[in-house]
Amino acid sequence: MHKGAPRTRRKFRSDWAEMAYLSDKIFYWVNMGRGAVARRFEKRMRDILLRHKRHQGAILVQEGWALVHELNGEWQKAVKRRKREVALLERLQRAAREHDQAAKAYILYECGPERLAESLTFLAIDYAKWGRTGDAKNTLRRAERYCRRARIVFEGKEILEGLEHECHPPDGQRGKRPRKELRGRRPQ
């Protein structure tokens, strides 16, 4: 990830290079709390993604759609795209084991353990924003286990602690549990 805003570019060798650039821009500005700035890049991203509809097996396409959906608050769609992104990253890492050392090194440099852990964390955030806290916690725990096995730092620790705290207030104090609504019945 960038330490500052990605530098502005106007020329690209391919749609794929522009897609990667737009992903970085949107991601940066959303995480800086400047969604309005990120929205300036949404139409360009959507146009490129629509031109590459047939490339649904591309990690970058899934990441791009997830960012567009996140920007629009479409959490269910964002989760679907992030899950696909994670599955593609896992498949690529399994395939890397079968390649020669140079190809394996390149694949793992671009889409290695850090990238998979990061994508799992983003998936958990999307679950949480969609209101599916249990799925968010399970995904973060999965990312934590993965990081432990890969011997890398788990960056989602604070997010997981926040979700745990939200579900289990300190000092054993618990409020009333929300009443479950029964399907087909009106609340009384």
Protein model, in words:
The chain has 188 residues and is mainly α. The protein has a single domain (15-169), classed as Serine Threonine Protein Phosphatase 5, Tetratricopeptide repeat (Alpha Horseshoe), CATH 1.25.40.10. The chain is 66% helix and 0% strand. It is built from nine helices and no strands. The protein has helices at residues 15-31, 35-39, 42-51, 59-71, 75-96, 101-111, 113-130, 133-150, 157-167. Helix 1 (15-31) runs antiparallel to helix 3 (42-51) and helix 5 (75-96) runs antiparallel to helix 6 (101-111). It is globular. Residues 172-188 have low confidence and may be disordered.
Rg, nearest Å: 19 Å
pLDDT averaged over residues: 84
Give the tally of β-strands: 0
CATH architecture: Alpha Horseshoe
The H-and-E topology, N to C, reads as: HHHHHHHHH
CATH topology: Serine Threonine Protein Phosphatase 5, Tetratricopeptide repeat
Number of domains: 1
Determine and state the CATH class. Mainly Alpha
> Structural class, please?
mainly alpha
The residue fraction in helices comes out at 55-70%
CATH homology superfamily:
Tetratricopeptide repeat domain
Main pleated-sheet profile: none
Terminal Cα span: 51 Å
Strand content: under 5%
Spatial shape: globular
Given the structure, what is the number of helices? 9
Low-confidence region ranges: 172-188
Blueprint (SSEs and pairs):
Elements: H1 15-31, H2 35-39, H3 42-51, H4 59-71, H5 75-96, H6 101-111, H7 113-130, H8 133-150, H9 157-167
For this entry, give a set of tags.
Serine Threonine Protein Phosphatase 5, Tetratricopeptide repeat; 188 residues; disordered C terminus; mainly alpha
